[in-house]
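Postdoc handover notes: sequence design on the structure in folder B. Input tokens:
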């Protein structure tokens, strides 16, 4: 099953958080923060959303930083994705 986002929505897959700190301390699962860096899996077409023309500025494969608690979590098979609006994406990571 494929997910095809509509309008200004984007399907992202959260990237794993670092399990070790810079000083080498291994973090327990509960001590890790929710990751904010994700990879874009699918992008909606944009278009006219609520009377405003939306041009999609991101593309499949981009790594992005999202708002911390944004989006809707979806599980497809064994994979977990988050569907967010493009406006919830804060930056593209190079």
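Designed sequence:
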């Amino acid at each position: 099953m494929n997910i095809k986002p509509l309008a200004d929505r984007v399907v992202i897959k959260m990237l794993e958080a670092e399990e070790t700190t810079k000083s080498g301390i291994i973090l327990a699962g509960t001590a890790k923060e929710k990751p904010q860096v994700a990879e874009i899996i699918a992008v909606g077409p944009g278009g006219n959303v609520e009377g405003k023309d939306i041009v999609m500025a991101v593309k499949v494969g981009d790594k992005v930083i999202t708002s911390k608690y944004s989006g809707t979590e979806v599980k497809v098979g064994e994979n977990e994705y988050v569907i967010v609006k493009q406006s919830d994406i804060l930056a593209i990571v190079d």
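Context for whoever picks this up: The beta strands are 9-14, 37-43, 47-49, 52-54, 63-66, 72-76, 79-85, 89-93. Don't rerun without checking with the PI first.
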